[in-house]
Target: CcmD family protein
Amino acid sequence: MGALEIAFAITWITLMLYLAYIISSRRKLMRQFSRIEK
Model:
């Protein structure tokens, strides 16, 4: 209920979204690399 808990929740959500973005961008990069190799 406190402001600290709200800030923690926002930080956690931001981190999860950031990780999801990194994973999706990595998959795109891997596809590009595999195309170049072939």
